[in-house]
Amino acid sequence: MEMNNCIVAQSGGPTAAINASLAGVIQGVLDHPEYDHIYGSLNGITGILEERFLDLTETFRQKENLELLKVTPAMYLGSCRYKLPKMEEDIATYETIFRFFEKMEISAFFYIGGNDSMDTVDKLSAYAAKIQSNVRMIGIPKTIDNDLCVTDHTPGFGSAAKYVAASFLEIFHDTVIYTPKSVTIVEIMGRDAGWLTAASVLARNEYCAAPHLIYLPESAFDKEAFLKDVGRLLEQYNNVIVAVSEGICDKDGNYISASTGAVDNFGHSQLSGAGKTLEYLVQERLDVKVRSIELNILQRCGAHMASRTDLEESFCQGRHGVSCAAQGKTGLMVTIQRTGSQPYQVTYGSSPVCEIANQVKSVPKEFINAAGNDVTPEILPYLQPLVQGQPKIAFDQGIPRYLPVPHLL
């Protein structure tokens, strides 16, 4: 049987750039003579298990639709947080997936997602090898957390970093107009890696020193030292702005935030309220006006504040994944290597997904100051190229126009 079709799915948390990666995969398939159809699985791998999918081929032969997809936030195909069981625990799930591949004449599967999605790619690759299947498995990276190993940075991070930095600059302008002493604590996503919180440093300029303090999960958090830091800065500034990662922990590894006690399908603790916890602490101990802000989901899909660099690289990584599959490669995740800083340049490659799945890339020590309450200037050349440029977004009656998603309703 000729296996000339491909299927792509998206998984995990949304970003402003994951649809640009999807557009890259679609374009790569449409351009390649080996492939006939590109299908889209709805809601990640669960769409394959339940045979819920779209034929994307004709829809995206229309250039206008593909261009609109590139700037549309979140997942056009929907998402899931389904943990694929181990083969030895549930072989039937794998058999169902590969029967679908055979039925639909699938020769390549592309999974766009973060660490947990790469776990799925790794498991499917292992099963394919076990049964000697020729279906190629390619992971296309995505995560605002920027915590995937091997690759220089991940699609979605640059746009989220830009949103975070812009938000801090706007928060500074909001607070600086008042003279009474105040503290504003901003909680940013990042359970195990503080890349996104570190990006708040990009808000600083010749007149804005905010955020005045930056706390990452890579450094042990000390409440007493924090209170001293804030108190010292209140002597210098009327308004102190603090950036904290949701996953900050004390020296014993206990989350500063109030844990809900719940975990997700991948065993990750569900965190709630690092910023609020510190707000109450400052209010109790320093007796000063204080508020906490949780950027929450807003930082994930701010397409109106997207980085053009991020979207362009995301598209290229999706297309590169198709090239890898067409060359017969499998069990890989697409990677990006920085080859120049002045000017900024990158190349695209791939690495075995088994070396990436379930690993975490932390912010390196040289990017964090000795006190653990700020980042160092060395991080700026790494961050700055990733937030450059603004994509062209069409507006309809003053509101951004995105690609409709009736199939998700």
Structure notes:
- This is 6-phosphofructokinase.
- It comes from Petralouisia muris.
- The structure is a single chain.
- The protein is of the alpha/beta class and 409 residues long.
- It has two domains: 5-144 and 303-357, 3-Layer(aba) Sandwich (Rossmann fold), CATH 3.40.50; 160-299, Phosphofructokinase domain (Rossmann fold).
- The chain has helices spanning 18-31, 45-49, 63-71, 91-103, 115-131, 157-175, 195-198, 223-234, 274-286, 308-326, 380-383, and strands at 5-10, 37-41, 53-55, 106-113, 136-141, 182-188, 213-215, 239-245, 258-263, 269-272, 289-294, 332-341, 344-352, 395-396, 399-400.
- The strands form four sheets. The protein has a seven-stranded mixed beta sheet, with helices on both faces. A four-stranded parallel beta sheet has the order 7-8-6-11, sandwiched between helices. It has a two-stranded antiparallel ribbon with strand order 9-10.
- Helix 1 runs antiparallel to helix 3, helix 1 packs parallel to helix 10 (308-326) and helix 8 (223-234) packs across helix 9.
- The longest helix has 19 residues, at 157-175.
- The chain is elongated and about 75 Å long.
- The mean pLDDT is 94.
What is the gist of this entry?
The protein folds into two domains: 195 residues, Rossmann fold (3-Layer(aba) Sandwich), CATH 3.40.50; 140 residues, Phosphofructokinase domain (Rossmann fold).
